[in-house]
Amino acid sequence: MPSVHHVSTANGDVLLLIGTMKGLFVLRSNRARKHWETGGPYSVGSPVYAAAFDQRNGRRRLWWAQQSFRWGTILNSSDDFGKTSTEPETYSIKFPAESGVALKNIWQINLNAPDQPDTIFCGVEPAALFVSRDAGSSWSLVEGLFNHPHRPKWVPGGGGLCLHTIVPDPVDHKRMTVAISTAGAYRTDDGGATWQARNQGIRAEFLPEKYPEFGQCVHKIVQHPAQPQRLFLQNHWGLYRSDDGGDSWKDIANGVPSDFGFCMVAHPHDPDTVYIVPIESDEYRCTPQGKLRVYRTRNAGASWEPLTRGLPQKNALETILRDSLAADTLDPAGIYFGTRSGKVYGSNDEGKSWQLILEGLPPVVCVKAAVVGGSGKPTARAAKKTARKVRPKPKAVKKPAGRKVARARAK
């Protein structure tokens, strides 16, 4: 067994939680984000598809999902950055016995429920949503989604029938959007009691009917809290934006080498800026032309630019999976991603330049970033930047027509 190392942290440090096919690694750096210390591996030998850092209500708690082919999937937590961890005596997340369904994997741990510091959501396989209202001590199945009439017709994607993306609305506490492969996007407006498919305009390239009500293989959805009605979506073929909360979607694949891909992350301070890493195709799931390029839009998808400085542009046949791209909340923001070849790259200047942080890891399937002691909210400087970005433009004031008439008469 490999030796396990631990990191020590201070307020203002940046954490990267790296979930791999052989355990969880915890990386730490100061605000400069130039040199990184590595902790772990934790849950040695087990796939870790989901991780999160909870510092609400004074906590400093790591969460990660440990998948065992022998014992099943459980949640682990640590309040001392991995030095000690707590496993539930019984599987804390499990389907009701009468459902006849067994938990296969936990794909997402979401701590973003607005003003609910003890609420945690988990997206799982087979596709379902679980919620805890007591900081993870107990869990319940969101039955409104589990009993949806579409469910019998949902078909597993290449990674299984998984609910992998959870987007709580930052303003309307009863609204939430989720993404399921391969069922598409679904939204609730009543706290989870009922759910509606929200896939209008998203194509399903692999189906005879290209624009069905549901059945799309949505890979990722992101949102900026300053503009909750606007959503960005990376599909199994297709890049989209919605300006009405998901009611309809517009294609924004303008100038990218491929609109196939998995990962997507929103800039923490700029609602017009989103990052992706395109993949060649569903048959050849590597970076196009062997060039490792992160693409960024700064105008909400009107155009995209490649970010390459510090990234290999030859023989870089890499794959970046759906949850392997993350951003911290510092200013300038840090952007990070991990590859299936076990490399972790980072940028401390919003993507202008990149460095190889770590290599030689098992395949990376999850990357999460957090600032220790941070609220998850932007700094004062960044908040002002965001406010300027979303401030509505003043309406043009028309001069009274009477002045023109008076001048004309005077002539």
Summarize the structure.
This protein is mainly beta and 411 residues long. It has helices spanning 143-146, 380-390, 401-410, and strands at 14-20, 23-29, 37-42, 51-54, 61-68, 72-78, 105-110, 120-125, 128-132, 140-141, 162-168, 176-181, 184-188, 196-197, 218-223, 231-235, 239-242, 250-251, 260-266, 274-279, 294-297, 305-307, 325-327, 335-338, 344-347, 355-358, 364-371.
Task: Explain what you see.
The protein is mostly beta strands and about 400 residues long. It has a single domain (about 15-410), classed as YVTN repeat-like/Quinoprotein amine dehydrogenase (Methylamine Dehydrogenase, Chain H, 7 Propeller). It contains 3 helices and 27 strands. Strands 3-2-1-27 form a 4-stranded antiparallel beta sheet, with no helix packed on it. A 4-stranded antiparallel beta sheet has the order 7-8-9-10. A hairpin with a 2-residue loop joins strand 12 and strand 13. The longest helix has 11 residues, at about 380-390. The model is unreliable at about 395-410 (pLDDT under 50).
